[in-house]
Amino acid sequence: MQHHLNRGLLALCFSWGCSHGAQQASVALPGSCAPCSTGTVSAKPTNPLLTKANMDREKTFVQELKDLQNKQQPEHDAFIEREKMTALLGGRTAVQAWSQGDDELANEAFGFILGIDELAIAPLLDGPLRDDPMAVSQAMNIVVGEESRLRRRIVLQLEKWLEDKRPVPEKLLAPGTEGTPAHHRVCDEAYVSMRRIVHFGDHEVDQIADADRFFNLPANLRDKAIARARASKSWRLVIDPESVDEPPPSSRPSRPKSMLGQ
Amino acid sequence: MSDPLTNALVALTGAANQAINTLTVPPEERLIIIAEGKQFNSGDAARPWQCPQWFRTPGSERAKIIVFYDKGKPYTVGDIHKNIKQLPPIPLVDRPDGTFEYLNLDQGVRFIIKKVQDKLAFRDALLTPGAHVMYDGHARYGRGPCFGVGGLSPGEMWEEGTGNGQGKQLPLTHPNRDGIFRLGSKYIAVEAEEIKKHGYTANLLEAIDRPKDADCDKDLKPHIWELKGRTLKDIDPALFTAVRDPNPTKKWWTYWGYVDGKRKLFVVHHAGWEQTLSNPDDIGALTPTCRVFAHLGCSTYKHNFPPVRKQKQWVREGNERYAYWTTNLSDFGAAHYWLQHVLTYKKFNAFKPLEESLKYAVKQSNIMLTNDGDRCNII
Question: B355-371 vs B332-344: helix axis angle to the nearest 10?
Fold first, then answer.
């Protein structure tokens, strides 16, 4: 409980914009910083026993993964299910405590939820939440805020991958497969992924058909399409909102434009 | 009011395992019909195994089967789909009528598995209430499941088929046993060279009126305004003997597109899902009463979801009319993972909606396909 309580405080620091909170939260250990009135800031773990436990856990986990190599699917499934439950346990328990606990516990639980960043999304969506407008409002803000931050991180990473022109190896296809697989580069997939993430409203069928058409173009035409898209105002708005003076009229083009920018 | 069937207790002995002898509710019986296409029939050169029998062996054994040789080097099932090796065996039991059964006690379901390899049987499968129909074969670029024999051998089986369905070769009438069961958009564009490769008689779209957007396959839509009328001579003189109308003065819709970076001439075919040349071998001529239809040929989501789900309006209703598609080129992996996971889902779901078990099959199949490096997912 002490651990959760400290994490909750850190979470509050984070939600107040304190960068220390973010650093601390990332090591998943209790710590201290100015807004928490404990005086000092340290990104290092303060509990060496817990660190050793984590290292042991890592070793065990890697060993379990190795052991799975010769096992059949039921064992794989059971392992994944167990680890997934473990990973979600803190968030789910905190959501439950926030929803059902007494005021003090609920307060700590909410602090914890605020501190676990995007890890709060699934537990909050899974619920159950407290049935009052304030709780709904808070949950909504956390879920959407974290999703937006995560999306932003993805966008920035995709932008980096757009520079990567290495080919993605083709999986061997069984002979006789109808059609010819198109060769992809990392940047091509980054481009298509970026379109998926920023083009709301396109039906998945259209996204897939558009992506197929793009992947089948010669490399020079794919490069041109990527360059054209990156130079567009809507694209720059996504990558660097401050570089664009005025927002576009809508987050979506008025007519679904093809990936070729034609 | 509870269903007396589900409350009844019966003495149950698993045919596959004499050790199972207990009291339980009677299992729900579910029929799975595997429809195999012209190429990829069990046992043809590209499928050196028998489906579903090979599910009896552990995945580690299935993975060792050699699928093809390239420059003398053998390539196995496991080289193409490495995750098959972790699949457990499924104790399928032969039934006297040539079908198979598998009792999954966790699910409370007895699966009856039937394999069909011709179009008439596929049509019947679609019209079998409650059946789970899965098609494993070529999608014909969206035109529809395609039946026949002879593996990759050329001929009319790649299009309209042969015979009259009554064992006579002529005149060609529908319904017949081979050829395409149509469930694609009205017009579909395919590389012109595909006609020669497969050796069938193509039904090209004459360049009179430009096709309407709503009638075009997803791959054709972006090219509607690029379409250009060309004579057969301009397309490929070899096509004079490969089209329904060889008139040398007529022009046919074509466009230049790309396949894996290479420029290719595409021609537009009459295809469709209703009132087609193949009627009643099209989905417009019937309303499937099967519960599940999984079309696991290549790229069926973009080609066949719109005509079937949007135009035909064969849409999900409660526990009926589930449909599944593929997102990219697919080989045997999609169908293999699909069937394995439908059969081995572990939660009790007898007399309950199929949704959770099918979601499981989608998720697990996609995990394995993606882990194999496959770009195809089931959707």
Answer: 140
Residue A45 exposed, middle or buried by CB count within 10 Å (0-12, 13-18, 19+): middle
pLDDT at position A147: 95
Chain B hits for A217, CB-CB cut-off 8 Å, are 258, 261
Interchain CB distance below 8 Å, B302 and A205: yes
B214 touches chain A (CB under 8 A): no
Q: Report yes or no: B252 and B204 within 8 Å, Cβ to Cβ.
A: yes
Which band of pLDDT confidence, cut at 50, 70 and 90, is reported for residue B43?
confident
- Taking CB atoms and an 8 Å cutoff, what residues of chain A touch B372? 171
What number is the average pLDDT over the span B296-301? 98
My answer on whether omega of the bond before B74 falls inside 30° of 0, hence cis, is: no
Predicted local distance difference test score (pLDDT) of residue B165: 84
d(CA B350, CA B158): 39
Q: Over range A226-251, report the average pLDDT.
A: 77
In whole angstroms, give the CA distance from residue B195 to residue B189: 11
Distance CA(B254)–CA(B236), nearest Å, equals 12
Q: Return d(Cα B356, Cα B347) in angstroms, integer.
A: 9
What is the pLDDT, as a whole number, of residue A239?
85
Please choose, from the candidates A238, A260, A198, A251, the residue with its C-alpha nearest in 3D space to the C-alpha of residue B257: A260
Name the minimum distance, in Å, from the CA of B89 to any CA of chain A.
Answer: 9
Q: Helix, strand, coil proportions of chain A in percent (round to 5)?
A: 65, 0, 30
Q: Which residue has the tokens 């009126």?
A: B209
Residue B376: band (very low, low, confident or very high) from pLDDT cuts 50, 70, 90:
very high
Task: Report which of A203, A198, A98 is spatially closest to residue A148, judged by C-alpha positions.
Answer: A198
pLDDT at A137: 95
Asked if A178 and B67 come within 8 Å (Cβ–Cβ), the reply is no
* DSSP assignment letter at B320: B
A221: number of Cβ within 10 Å? 14
Please state the three-class secondary structure of B11-46 as a single string.
EEECCCCCCCEEEECCCEEEEEEEEECCCCCCCCCC
Confidence (pTM):
0.85
Closest to B254 in 3D by CA, of B285, B201, B211, B311: B211
Q: Is A182 on the interface with B (CB under 8 A)?
A: yes
Using CA atoms, how far apart are residues B130 and B114, in angstroms rounded to an integer?
Answer: 14
Q: CA B154, CA A94: separation in Å to the nearest integer?
A: 64
Residue A179, pLDDT above cutoff 90: no
- B347 pLDDT higher than 80: yes
- With CB atoms and an 8 Å threshold, state whether A219 touches B328: no
The rounded distance, in Å, linking the Cα atoms of B302 and A217 is 18
A183 vs B contacts (CB less than 8 Å): 260-261
Is the preceding peptide bond at A128 cis, omega within 30 degrees of 0?
yes
Which pLDDT tens digit goes with each residue over A24-44?
A: 333 333 333 333 333 334 445
pLDDT in tens, B203-246: 999 999 999 999 999 999 999 999 999 999 999 999 999 999 99
CB B135 within 8 A of CB B297: yes
pLDDT above 50 (res A16): no
